[in-house]
Amino acid sequence: MLEIAPSTYYDAKTRPPSARATRDAALIPLLLALWVRNYSVYGRRKLTKAARKAGHDVGRDQVARLMRHMGIRGASRAKKRFTTHADPAHTRAADLVKRDFTASRPNEKWVADFTYCSTWSGIVYLAFVIDIFSRRIVGWKAASTMHASLVIDALNMAAWTRRHVNIDGVICHSDAGSQGEIKWSSQHLRDGGVRYGQQASASAGGAGDARQDVVARAAVDGAA
Hints:
Nucleotidyltransferase, domain 5; alpha/beta; 5-stranded mixed beta sheet; two-stranded antiparallel ribbon; flat; 2 domains; 7 strands
């Protein structure tokens, strides 16, 4: 069924463990013992320092990989924040993109997303709109709280930056998130004060759409 030679199968069955696998097998119980000994609160940085202090030559990335393999993690005082909460009661816009995050021209498809970042002054929430063709951020808005106007302002800015060109038929795609009053939908394109919004189409994917997040993150990292 796999269409491989029998010799290939038996060679894989009898092949000895690689040097990395052998070293991992020796390190895993040592790292786990150090982690438990330190009240199961050490993250990759402190666990790496503890392992080196105990005489083990390990790297931080290696420790992080083995911690993921063991399913352990360090304690954190940071509050978990979620920017995507699906609302089952909300009428979701149709998915017009169908996971095809490519475009043949500017203003054919926009991707809208919502995230946050930590700063010395506190948490900053950021809404942004990306033109898929150029991967350029065409609209954005930052604020210290999550509210509906944050999202609408990002769409307004996207339309304003394209005010000198025709954006008829542009598809604005987002995930199916809903934070309080924040719902990316055709309602905002019609009634949210977005210029040329009546000529745009709303499109929504799944909650926290992974492929959309990759597109958005690549654009944000490029801008940064």
